[in-house]
Design a protein that fits this description.
Inorganic phosphate transporter; about 350 residues; 13 helices; mainly alpha; membrane; phosphate transmembrane transporter activity; transmembrane helix
């Protein structure tokens, strides 16, 4: 019975990873589609490939943060297998619900913060606020602000540097060069997306296993966890929807290939650097910041701030909304368990 429950929760975790890729496909392909360098179908295949390639160089620091840096893993494990399973199940379902809602609304919200919020909401009724790791949550909250600012700064600098480098060239040459370079920059960003986002679910799977059937083993992220999570997010990206691409690639600001290159490179470098530090940031926030930075180099009016404002509100509400949804799922799950026992 316990083994079956563990397998089912791991399956739900991989479904979340698939939905994460599906929801965040726009982050990886919005600029390359918006500049018409690749068709949407080719773009998602390109992005999915580099999502998976990240399995072989991304590390596991973010996975360890998600597994032990938001909730007190040892305290949760001490509550028993049932508590571990219901907390993780509720966390995942709360995050999935918020991801699907924001996907339907066409808002590029953060899957990372949805999962963090879900974990917070599901943990409090079991362990209370003392079961939360305040320093880890504070770090994640701080980078809600910092990651888009860093992405915006690097996107702006990349755009200025690129423009200065080619300012003596004809527009046709510039367009041709950066159409080719954007294949590289979109690969960098897709790699960074896999590096950051796939690791979240590795940490969740590890909590499930080392909190239940592997209680006697040391917490560790194994090879099969890495490969399965990267495969799930790559498949999700491959089948990702068009709704958010429209917001990110077209509604926020107009992008030429040189701008797409600058935004993807700035955003991708930011995410890879922060992943190496073990900080689970939002790829959505970061690429949005980079796109805004690139657009602002053409003047403040080049950015559609009304669209940007809607996106920012989605960021603000993601953690509390997903926490509330996870809390509701936890309450229903408890009632079902009580009815069956």
């Amino acid at each position: 019975m316990l083994l079956t429950a563990v397998v089912l929760i791991i399956a739900v975790a991989l479904i979340f990873d698939f939905i994460n890729g599906f929801h965040d496909a726009a982050n990886s392909i919005a600029t390359v589609v918006g500049t018409r360098v690749l068709s949407p179908n080719l773009a998602v295949a390109w992005a999915a490939f580099f999502n998976f390639v990240a399995a072989f160089g991304g590390g596991v620091k973010v996975a360890n943060t998600m597994g032990k840096g938001i909730i007190d893993f040892e305290m949760l494990r001490a509550q028993g297998s049932e508590a571990v399973l219901i907390v993780i199940f509720s966390s995942l379902m709360g995050a999935i619900a918020w991801n699907l809602l924001t996907w339907w609304w066409g808002l590029p919200s953060s899957s990372s913060h949805a999962l963090a919020g879900g974990m917070i909401g599901a943990t409090v009724p079991v362990l209370g606020f003392k079961g939360l790791v305040g320093s880890g949550i504070a770090k994640i909250a701080a980078f809600i602000v910092l990651s888009p600012l860093i992405g915006m700064t690097l996107g702006t600098l990349m755009m200025l540097a690129s423009t200065w480098t080619v300012h003596k060239q004809t527009p046709l040459k510039v367009d041709t060069w950066f159409r080719r370079l954007q294949l590289l920059s979109s690969a960098i960003f897709s790699y960074s997306h896999g590096t950051n986002d796939a690791q979240k679910v590795m940490g969740i799977i590890a909590v499930v296993l080392y909190g239940t059937i592997w209680k006697d083993r040391n917490f560790e992220i194994t090879t099969w966890m890495i490969l399965s999570c990267h495969a799930a997010i790559a498949l999700g990206t491959f089948f990702g929807g068009w709704r958010i691409v429209k917001t990110m690639g077209h509604s926020l600001t107009k992008l030429a290939p040189i701008g797409g290159f600058a935004a993807e490179t700035g955003g991708g470098v930011t995410i890879i650097a922060l992943a190496k530090l073990g900080i689970p940031v939002s790829t959505t926030h970061t690429i949005t910041g980079a796109i805004v930075g690139v657009g602002s180099t053409r003047g403040w009016r080049a950015v559609k701030w009304g669209v940007a404002g809607r996106i920012i509100w989605a960021w603000v509400f993601t953690i509390p909304a997903s926490a509330l949804m996870a809390l509701l799922v936890y309450g229903v799950a408890r009632l079902v368990i009580m009815a069956l026992s």
